[in-house]
Design goal:
The complex is a heterodimer of chains A (654) and B (362). Chain A is mainly α. Chain A has one domain. Chain A has helices at 2-12, 15-33, 39-50, 55-79, 89-100, 104-127, 129-139, 142-159, 164-178, 204-223, 237-246, 248-263, 268-282, 295-311, 313-319, 325-336, 343-348, 350-381, 386-402, 408-427, 432-455, 463-485, 495-498, 502-506, 513-534, 539-567, 581-598, 600-615, 620-640, 649-653, and strands spanning 181-182, 189-190. Chain A has a two-stranded antiparallel ribbon. In chain A, a hairpin with a 6-residue loop joins strand 1 and strand 2 (189-190). Chain B has 13 helices and eleven strands. In chain B, the strands form three sheets. Chain B has a six-stranded mixed beta sheet with strand order 2-1-3-10-4-11, sandwiched between helices. In chain B, strand 1 (35-40), helix 2 (47-62) and strand 2 form a beta-alpha-beta unit.
């Protein structure tokens, strides 16, 4: 075994392979940082290049990218507050709050180090994959996979909300987004409105970008100034290190939770990160800072999400079943080099196994160090006027969305979801539960259906199911017991009182009653319509929509009524400063219509002119130079990703 | 081992000889310096994408003029979005190829309303077989294919969706008149195999590359018993041949004859043959837009014959697919067209079966 490890290290330490590994790492970091272009985009862009290399170099290139994506996206989550995936949402919530308080360095330091620990633990798990991890993966049957998804959603819905009803309504809305597309049980296509575009449902990238990214870009454009009123100071790296060291066991426990997330195909990081986040809250004595910038939350989330993306490779290598989307592409690469993963490959190609382990471990460490090194440079970007950064950022998001299916549907979906995300932000609805609900809806439905088909009701007594259920039930019972012992009548669990909210930080001072009213009404309408259409589904396709619609409708009606009642209550309406953000939202919608009508290129030139001259107030010469640079950069990105920009329908007719 | 030459192989040899003389004159520089775009309507890293990348260097080497082959993925709608795009944008000049599977063909055969492509009018550049083998868990008491009617416990089959790539497997159960509980709705073939290993299901079909690399190990370890393969199309279009890659496994046709002592017939058998042809024998097919001239098809015919004769390809294909050979368009096209256009009665049979037994909506 040690001999194999040494041989693999020798294989890896050839200049070309190291170059490949670190090129992959750099690509992974860049794509991890660009909002919406996470691991899947990085790996798919690198994929054509691996065919130019020998097998070890090609695989090292991909592994370099996979290992650092969740390390690098910490930077975007913390500095901009736009997470690339549900698994980074806790980091965005806590880290961005810290950044606004001038503590970005602490947040980033802990995030990088926790990611590194997660990556190294993932590598160790790969090392002991055959004797240890294999049996665990095989013991997780469909009932356990279902329970894992349920637990993840429970935490996401119940934790991030000042107003629990809004949190639950948001989670239900997320589930509703998630059930769009093919029903797993009976080839029913739900809520597709006859559009081929919706046959596969929404793309994760577009939902994540729409809900978080667009709203942040609008805020940037509108503010003209900075993300935070104060500049993001990066002064106390030392505090980050000591914070990390104090939380080392929390990080390790979270990484272990993350490893289990990797064993569970499809559910993966979205659930494990939230479970780790919940764990960090449970184990904290003082819960008051959660939602307002709690370093423990970052430590737990980053430890877990990086461990998950690495241990995603365990089912990939042992059973040829990818644990996540990036691992799926990696599996394709293994195939094309003639490796057929399975227990046999692990025995027959120990050098390859060790190569993978070394690559992951090495890039986890080097990646974290590079992140430390480049963060001051990135942070300097946040001192530039944000309207200037918003322009390239918005276009990168649009390209990121457009790579989903290369149709105009991607762009209109991005802007539609962006409008919803923007309204949620300003109406005090938490967005993370929507994202997690959307991601987990499909596996929950799929595994519930398979579970009941394969096991009847006997699955409820499986030990694995009971253990996972205990994660929810035991703390609830303990909490109830404590309350009963302390003689308090309140039976709701502890978490609610602590009042977590993304919005508590970002828009605490603005309660836009009209936005709230419109949003609540729209969501009620969406649920009512969905209820009506659902009546036409086959019985087996109705289950999950029902679970989303019935409670969702009740919660959202409750929110709507509450809003209407307070409409007539003049004292509670916030005075606030001029609220100009809707203008920017409508401009964005206008851009979407222009792209549809006259094509991407002309519409983008108009958008750039508006953003640079009107929003950012640039001078003619610099504005044109900067705009041309962005335009060229975006086209370069599209060439790289083999995307052809949409042509306008009006131009096509002419 | 006796090497019986199948009628299809004989036809291939004949066509190859013929096309070598016909195409060589015009072809030399048609593709020189050009780029052929191969559109794969699935994600990168999927089996179809990997297969397209596998063929890429051989096509570049053997198509006269050595064009660049560029493989582009256009996923969405279970391949329907990419195929729709191809139907609208592909030009009949041999520069774009749609490389796809039965996931594109079956919705076309069934006349699903999202389909905007006319597959039966397209030209076929080349095709690659994509066989599948059924296997069962030993704890069902089944030791050989003939035992299938006497299983000791209920047979549970795991699948993805009835109207897609599970269709030929489900139809094979109809042909053999088996009573099987089909649990559809798995997220992929890999998770189905894991569920089989965990004992949650006990009957499974896997496509050849996975069968050879994953399931064979289970069989060697005594954890799985091979049953039958889908079979392969003979020169007259009937699915009566053994799968050329899995010659040691009987075909559905043979198992039927052993079980019932008669030739299979009737609607179930006809439906199975049509769907099995586009799923297995012509499982991976490169289509070119309607109206692509015969000259271009002939260039591909010659290139495919050269690829099949290339020892490098033979070695590589032995590793990946157990030695499956490419089928030139001129052989595949008439058989694919026949399979893609079943009679109205057959179409009705398929739609009735899917609606009543598998809750599919049309």
């Amino acid at each position: 075994m040690f001999e194999d490890a040494a041989v693999a290290l020798e294989i890896l330490f050839q200049p070309m392979r190291l170059l490949a590994l670190f090129s992959g790492m750099v690509a992974g970091m860049v794509f991890g940082m660009l909002p919406g272009l996470g691991g899947v985009a990085a790996v798919s862009i690198l994929l054509p290049f691996i065919y130019l290399m020998d097998s070890f170099s090609g695989l090292a290139l991909l592994l370099g990218a996979i290992s650092v994506v969740y390390t690098a996206d910490t930077i975007t989550s913390v500095l901009i507050g736009a997470p690339g995936s549900p698994a980074s949402a806790p980091t965005a919530i806590e880290g961005h709050a810290l950044a606004k308080q001038g503590e970005a360095a602490r947040a980033l330091g802990v995030g990088f180090l926790a990611s590194m620990v997660g990556g190294i633990l993932g590598a160790i798990i790969l090392l002991v994959a055959i004797p240890v991890a294999g049996p665990i993966v095989l013991s997780l049957g469909t009932p356990e996979l279902f329970m894992f998804a349920v637990v993840g959603l429970y935490f996401a819905a119940s934790m991030v909300s000042q107003n629990r009803i809004k949190g639950l309504a948001a989670a239900c809305f997320g589930l509703l987004l998630g059930v769009v597309g093919p029903a797993p049980a009976a080839a029913d296509f739900r809520f597709t409105f006859g559009q081929a575009y919706l046959l596969d449902g929404f793309s994760l990238t577009i939902v994540a970008l729409g809900l978080f990214g667009i709203a942040e870009v609008i805020a940037m454009l509108a503010s003209g100034g900075g993300i935070s009123a104060d500049r993001v100071a990066l002064t106390h790296w030392g505090a980050g290190f000591s914070d990390f060291w104090r939380r080392r066991w929390l990080v390790l426990r979270s990484a272990i939770i993350g490893v289990f997330g990797g064993f569970v195909p499809a559910v993966g990081a979205s659930a494990s990160t939230w479970i780790a986040y919940a764990h960090s809250m449970r184990s904290a004595k003082d819960k008051s800072r959660f939602g307002h910038g709690e370093i423990r939350g970052i430590a737990a989330a980053e430890g877990a999400n990086n461990a998950t993306i690495i241990s995603d490779l365990v089912p990939t290598l042992l059973f040829s079943v990818p644990g996540g989307p990036a691992a799926a592409i990696f599996l394709g690469a293994l195939y094309s080099f003639g490796y057929y993963p399975g227990p046999r490959m692990v025995n027959e190609n120990p050098d390859l196994m060790f190569l993978i382990v070394w690559s992951v471990a090495l890039t986890s460490v080097v990646g974290a160090m590079v992140c430390f090194a480049i963060t001051p440079l990135i942070a300097r970007l946040t001192q530039i006027r944000f309207a200037l950064i918003a322009a390239p950022l918005l276009l990168v998001m649009i390209v990121g969305a457009y790579q989903a299916t290369n149709t105009i549907g991607d762009i209109s979906m991005l802007i539609t979801l962006g409008a919803i995300g923007w309204m949620m932000k300003h109406a005090g609805w938490p967005r993370a539960p929507v994202l997690v609900g959307y991601v987990l809806a499909t596996p929950m439905e799929q595994y519930f259906w398979l579970t009941t088909q394969l096991h009847g009701w006997s699955w409820l007594s499986r030990p694995g199911v009971l253990i996972i259920a205990a994660i929810i039930v035991v703390p609830l019972i303990v909490g109830l017991y404590r309350r009963w012992r302390d003689g308090r009548g309140d039976i709701l669990p502890v978490i609610e009182e602590e009042g977590l909210s993304l919005q508590a930080v970002s828009v605490a001072h603005v309660e836009r009653k009209w936005v709230e009213l419109v949003l609540a009404a729209l969501i009620v309408l969406a649920f009512v319509y969905a209820f009506y259409e659902m009546l036409g589904f086959a019985a087996v396709s109705r289950l999950m929509p029902t679970m989303a619609i019935v409670p969702g409708l009740a919660f959202s009606v409750f929110v709507l009524i509450g809003r209407i009642r307070r409409m007539f209550d003049p004292e509670k309406t916030a005075a606030g400063e001029a609220f100009n953000e809707p203008v920017f939202l409508f401009a964005l919608i206008g851009y979407g219509v222009l792209v549809w009508a006259i094509g991407f290129n002309i519409a983008t030139v108009i958008l750039l002119a508006w953003m640079l001259f009107y929003c950012a107030g640039m001078k003619a010469v610099t504005g044109i130079a900067y705009g041309a640079l962005i335009f060229a950069g975006i086209h370069g990105l599209m060439v790289l990703m083999k995307i052809q920009p949409p042509l306008g329908v009006l131009l096509a007719i002419v | 081992m006796k090497r019986r030459k199948t009628p299809l192989a004989a036809a291939l040899a004949g066509i190859a000889l013929f096309s070598m003389t016909a195409a060589s004159a015009l072809a030399q520089d048609y593709y020189a310096g050009k780029t052929i775009t191969v559109v794969v309507p699935f994600s990168q890293g999927g089996a179809t994408y990997v297969s397209a990348k596998f063929l890429e260097p051989f096509l570049e080497k053997h198509i006269p003029g050595n064009p660049d082959i560029e493989v582009v993925d256009r996923p969405g709608g279970g391949s329907i979005l990419g195929a729709n795009w191809f139907a609208q944008n592909g030009k009949p000049d041999g520069m774009t190829i749609l490389f796809t599977t039965s996931s594109t063909a079956n919705p076309y055969v069934l006349g699903k309303k999202e389909v905007e492509y006319d597959l039966a009018k397209m030209r076929v550049a080349y095709s690659h077989p994509f066989g599948a083998v059924a296997y069962v868990s030993p704890d069902t008491g089944i030791a050989k294919p003939e035992d299938i009617l006497n299983a000791k416990k209920p047979l549970i089959y795991g699948g993805i969706a009835a109207a897609a790539s599970d269709l030929p497997g489900l139809l094979s159960f109809e042909v053999l008149k088996l009573d099987i509980k089909s649990v559809l709705g798995f997220p992929g073939r890999g998770p189905i195999r894991l569920a089989f290993e965990r004992g949650e299901t006990n009957l499974d079909y896997q496509f050849t590359p996975v069968y050879l690399t994953q399931v064979k190990q289970l069989i060697d370890a005594g954890k799985a018993i091979p049953l039958w393969s889908g079979g392969s199309v003979s020169a007259d279009g009937s699915v009566t041949e053994r799968d050329p890659v899995n010659k040691d496994v009987p075909s559905v046709y043979e198992v039927y004859k052993t079980l019932y002592n008669e030739e299979p017939s009737g609607q179930a058998w006809d439906a199975f043959q049509a769907i099995a042809a586009v799923t297995y024998t012509f499982g991976l097919t490169g289509y070119m837009p309607e109206g692509t001239p015969d000259d271009v098809v002939a260039i591909f015919d010659k290139a495919i014959a050269d690829i099949n004769a290339d020892p490098e390809f033979q070695t590589a294909s032995m590793e990946v697919t157990g030695g499956a050979k490419l089928v030139p368009g001129s052989v595949a096209e008439p058989l694919i067209k026949k399979a893609l256009q079943p009679s109205p009665e057959l179409k009705k049979y398929l739609i009735d079966l899917l609606t009543s037994k598998y809750d599919v909506k049309f």
